[in-house]
Amino acid sequence: MSAWSLFCSRTSKAPWSSRFLMMPDKSAAIIDKWKVKLEGSGIPVVIGGHDSASPRGVGYSKNQAIAQSSGSYLCFLDSDDVMMPQRVRLQLEAAAQHPTSIIGCQVRREPPDSTERYTRWINQLAPDQLLTQVFTSNGPTVIMPTWFCSRAWFSHVGPFDEGGQGVPEDLLFFHNHLRKGGGVIRVDQSLLLYRYHPNAATRSVLETTIWTHRVRFLEERVLPHWAAFTIWNAGRQGRRLYRSLTAEARRKVVAFCDVDEKKIRKGFYCYEDSQERPKPRVPILHFRAARPPFVICVKLVSVRCSHSRGHASTVRLVQAPVVGSQTSDMQPDIHALGLGRLRGAAGYGERWSPLSGGRPGCRRRPPWRPHKMGCTSVK
């Protein structure tokens, strides 16, 4: 293991790694049983622990595993997943060419019918979308169990947040990685069997926690480049976004826009909880009267589409693909803020979006055509 280090981290409530183990689930006893066999095959085994009465969290486990390893490259793997034999070779080749990037890969889900939309999103993002969709998703655009990177780059970006249960340590690291100019590369082969189970630690992260981190990242990376912007959706999600912004960012919101005549007839949204006097009153416009850039907050809507293979299936609109403006250094064509479920749940990103205006075979199209205003479509 002189060139790279592989370590696993458990995704249940008692995290452990192949180099760092906790005792309640008898993991240490199992590893002790295999220690002789593994070391006889040339695989070093390092067993560690801590004196805390409660689990220290996934971030702590990963940091300890990295500290106790010695390779020049780090290959991450959750303990309940299975990687393909060619994974290390292919990702190592990619990492050597992209030393400041996180290297991911496509996955195969187990059970196969679990989180179908999320799995499609993981596997089908175009190379440029690995960056442009960072605001659309509830987590990194390449999922943590597929990460591969150089130790030098990890040390430059890291470590993982050790706040414990309820902290999205992978998302926080991913945001720091992007802040430092890191790239995102995906090997387009299925190199991981990605198991789904309801007790995964990712489910302990509240949606409100992830929402807050994503809004702050949007404010940091996108909104400073805009003098003003419009929130597309005067409903619950659009108002939630407005209320979540800092006072400085709220002052840049020149209008809400919508297709709902009732909301438009109301004429404005008043932020009743504001401490400002007079309280902010933001106009509500018909979308045709609104001006970009937009932050679009769109709820998932089911439509029936007939695909070219001749069968019908239910497709959902992508949740909150956003914006058209060529001002951000990180987002040259489009900015997006996704709104929705717990990270690691259903998934985000479909092949059809409200910005694309429909696709061949759809039996129903939305009544608006925002792509005519120059917005870029997002899958």
TrEMBL record:
Source domain of life: Eukaryota
Name of a matching Pfam family: Glycos_transf_2
Disordered: annotated span: 356-379
Domain Glycosyltransferase 2-like: 55-157
Entries under InterPro entries matching the protein: Glyco_trans_2-like (IPR001173), Nucleotide-diphossugar_trans (IPR029044)
Segments of skewed composition (Basic residues): 361-372
MF terms in GO: hexosyltransferase activity
Annotated protein name in UniProt: UDP-GlcNAc:betaGal beta-1,3-N-acetylglucosaminyltransferase-like protein 1 isoform X4
Organism whose genome encodes this protein: Ursus maritimus (Polar bear)
